[in-house]
Amino acid sequence: MPELPEVDALGAFLRERTTSRVVVAAHVAQIGALKTFAPPLDDVVGRGVVGVERHGKWLAIGLGPRGEIDPTDAELHLVLHLAKAGWLRWRESMVPASTPKGRPMGRSAGPLALRVWFDDDSGFDLTEAGTRKRLAVHLVTDVASIPPIATLGFDPVTAMTPQALGEALRRRNQQIKGALRDQSLVAGIGNAYSDEILHAAKMSPFALTSSLSDDDVARLAVATTGILGFAVAQATGKPAAELKDAKRRGMAVHGRAGQFCPVCGDVVREVSFSDRSLQYCATCQTGGTPLADRRMSRLLR
Question: What range(s) does the FPG-type domain occupy (predicted)?
């Protein structure tokens, strides 16, 4: 799943290539991906890109008003959420908009959800692999009208302090792994970076937020800033096609079950759930005690 660093880099990538470009066509290939119907998607045509902003793991492409067509026209925002298996694929040269719009572009195109064309023949595809379709596209006049964005917690890159993190985590008692992934508490962190943050902070993923001391929260804040800051720096300037591999290379424990922890040399372990898994180092994070896999027995804290 693309998380804050990758989405931030995608936003910068789009901002550099699309600002002042005019949308000449847009097509939804998976109708379920389009979550809004007023204004209609065709209203993006003829609008120039005025900016690209990140909101947690969401991207909002600002589209200026078409003043010459309608003086009362308002700015629109094409808002994208890539969900678990979505991705943005940039094309310097798109097939003409007059061709069948749902036609794949090469073997790596993946199942097409949305295609957008610009006036310099460039454009992008949104694709989503797998059978569980969760990618979301909204066209709105106000980004805050989208409930998941309106309820986002604080941004851990721009607004991280031990106080902000402590206030968020203490809103309810839950496992720290889940709290870091809760978008209403902290915006932009998902499964991968929560594993990395907890490894850097030397905390069990199943420690309860109510058990955290002020020193624990401060340590977690430092780890969050360090992990995300490094990941953002590594992703910055990379083209969209390289971001996934860059993310994998930067992981210390996530996705590395059975390999050796780069800090202590212990074997990285895994706990699996129905639709995801987490990875951790027992020596670094749980005092050497392995956590029981939830599929087999109760968790050991």
Answer: 252-286
Rounded to 5°, angle at Cα 206 from 132 and 270? 60
Please write the tens of the pLDDT for every residue from 29-49. Answer: 999 999 999 999 999 999 999
Percent of the chain predicted with pLDDT > 90: 79
| CA–CA separation, 238 and 9 (whole Å) | 7
227 neighbors 233 (Cβ within 8 angstroms): no
φ, ψ of residue 28 in degrees (nearest 5): -95, 120
Give per-residue pLDDT as tens, 131-154.
788 999 999 999 999 999 999 999
Q: Using the CB atoms, write b or e for 117-151: b if 16+ within 10 Å.
A: bbeeebbbbbbbeeeebebbbbbbeebeebebbee
Nearest to 21 by CA among 119, 114, 125, 126: 119
* CA gap 242, 240 in Å, rounded: 6
Amino acid at position 3, single letter: E
* Omega of the bond leading into 239 within 30 degrees of 0 (cis): no
| Residue labelled with tokens 């794949």 | 104
The pLDDT score that the predictor gives to residue 275 is 77
Q: Which long-range contacts (CB under 8 A, 24 or more apart) does 290-295 make?
A: 291/204, 291/205, 291/206
